[in-house]
Structure prediction request, 146 residues.
Amino acid sequence: MKILMVCLGNICRSPLAHGVMEQLVKERGLDWQVDSAGTGNWHIGQGPDRRSTREALKHGIDISNQICRQFRIRDFDDFDLIVVMDRSNRTDVLNLARNEQDKAKVIMLLGDKEVPDPYHDDTQFAPVFNLVEQGCKDLLAKYIGS
Ligand code: 4NP
Prediction:
């Protein structure tokens, strides 16, 4: 399974989802590839927001080596699943879809619920981590049944 985590900036939420999912698949010995990208282009080439890096480290996950990149059309070919954090991300990604097959790959991490954007609120990084972790666990359970 090749899975791409997507948010707006690729510095707060999707790097967390990327790191958490990588950790979970590693623990389970799964041969999954995980990556992340942003729909926006403001932070290309930068590392994750320090608040996300710090929050991940509290949970034993090092995301400091990740490099921000922008979502690209080719991602529809390169990944089996494109997992967005909120409805706005979903709209942005679906607008780039070339066909129904591309569209079918796009899901929200929490189903009908959104992972809120924590960028402007320092207090949101801890709850966002928890939401992302639960979403990743639920997603894994859905695909591998544990
Ligand atoms: P993210 O948060 O989508 O979770 O990475 C954001 C990061 C940066 C910006 C917006 C959201 N920004 O506007 O620069």
